[in-house]
Specification:
Pfam families: HEM4. It is a single chain. The chain starts with 12 loop residues before the first strand and ends with a helix. Helix 2 (75-85) packs across helix 3 (121-133) and helix 3 (121-133) runs parallel beside helix 5 (155-168). It has 2 domains: 19-41 and 55-68 and 258-354, 3-Layer(aba) Sandwich (Rossmann fold), CATH 3.40.50; 72-88 and 102-248, Rossmann fold, CATH 3.40.50.10090. It contains 11 helices and 15 strands. The protein has a 6-stranded mixed β-sheet. Helix content is 34%, strand content 20%. The protein is α/β, with parallel strands linked by helices. It is elongated.
Length: 357
């Protein structure tokens, strides 16, 4: 497994446990551009916006990618998604103004689905593979997009989805990119989708469902919320989940991570400046915590004082934090308020400003 620690200037690294996004990775760009303030040795109080610049010191971090996952498409289920885009025939020649030759499973109220849900970039990539290589006629994709809603959980997923939408599904609407979590997205969908497809007694709640493209490891908060028995029947939205990619821990991840951490700790010039590990998912957490000497022989937190560790831990959000606490009894040093580069950066900034030297 390759990483980029040896080719960069001797800055303290921030380990990003992910594969860099292509063609540009916003986490890498963020850390290249931003410096972080921390208290100088002479300061008795954390620096503030009004503190003289000479009273605080600044540090930049070198973003180092250490991929945790190996992803593969679920070929059989991709064929199912492709079939949903292909034309279908019914007894009616036209529904909602669409010729039967252009109708498919996504034909709005007359179809099975009114949209798709994405909570990961890998699911978007799976859809892109279908649209790019599936042989779906361009006329059908364009017609399908007129009624299609694409729900997305956050800005990173939206950035991956937008160029696909623009190229293959030009009239589709992307919605929900500021949700941040699956739970927030579910509530946004309830409000938005039920306005698009209001149910009446006459139509017997015949609103189309939503297709949720997922990996084999996911939370059930979205389907559980949208199909909850506590909702009025006419507010419920049927969700079909389809696994379109599979994720496994990348072979060789643990020794690769151990190697970069060891080299970084050995070359750390200023003990006041902690290294950082950014965890994006529960997968591989045990290897991460072992490497950082946070777990004992029973895979439980040693309870070591964070100030005694050279490397701190920040999670992308509360889901991964809760997993670390429940599984290992370990609470990360920082939890990003938003699952974005800025959310990670702000968490680190606040920690450094509050840190005792």
């Amino acid at each position: 497994m390759e990483n980029n620690i040896s080719s960069r200037p001797q800055l303290p690294p921030v380990f990003l446990l992910k594969t860099p996004s292509s063609p540009r990775d916003l986490y890498e760009e963020y850390f290249f551009k931003n410096a972080f303030a921390f208290r100088s040795r002479q300061q008795s109080n954390p620096p503030t916006d009004t503190t003289d610049a000479h009273d605080s010191e600044h540090i930049k971090y070198d973003p180092v990618f250490v991929p945790v996952f190996s992803h593969s498409f679920h070929t059989q289920n991709l064929d199912i998604v492709k079939s949903y885009f292909m034309p279908t025939t019914t007894e009616n020649d036209r529904i909602n103004g669409k010729e039967a030759s252009l109708r498919n499973a996504f034909s709005g109220r007359g179809g099975i689905y009114g949209g798709l849900i994405f909570t990961s970039q890998r699911a978007v990539e799976a859809l892109g593979h279908i649209l790019e290589h599936g042989g779906i006629p361009a006329e059908i994709m364009s017609s399908t997009s007129e009624d299609l809603i694409l729900y997305t959980v956050g800005p990173a997923t939206t950035r991956t989805l937008t160029p696909l939408r623009d190229k293959f599904l030009p009239f589709a609407t992307i919605y929900g990119d500021e949700a941040g979590t699956g739970e927030n997205l579910a509530h946004l969908i309830l409000k938005h989708y039920n306005k698009l497809y209001p149910s009446t007694a006459e139509d017997g709640n015949q609103k189309p469902g939503l297709l949720f493209l997922v990996g084999e490891q996911r939370r059930d908060i979205i389907p559980r919320t949208l199909m909850s028995s506590t909702l009025d029947e006419n507010q419920r939205i049927n969700i079909d989940e389809l696994v379109v990619y599979e994720t496994t821990q990348m072979e060789g991840f643990e020794p690769a991570f151990q190697d970069v951490v060891r080299k970084a700790e050995e070359s750390l010039n200023d003990e006041r400046t902690p290294l950082w590990t950014v965890i994006f998912s529960p997968t591989g957490c045990d290897a991460v915590l072992r490497t950082l000497n946070i777990l004992d022989e029973n895979n439980k937190s040693t309870g070591i004082d964070p100030s005694k560790r050279k490397c701190r831990v920040i999670t992308i959000g509360p889901t991964t934090r809760d997993y670390l606490i429940t599984k290992y009894g370990f609470e990360p040093d920082v939890v990003a308020r938003k699952p974005t580069p800025e959310g990670i950066g702000e968490g680190i900034k606040e920690y450094l400003l509050a840190m005792k030297v």
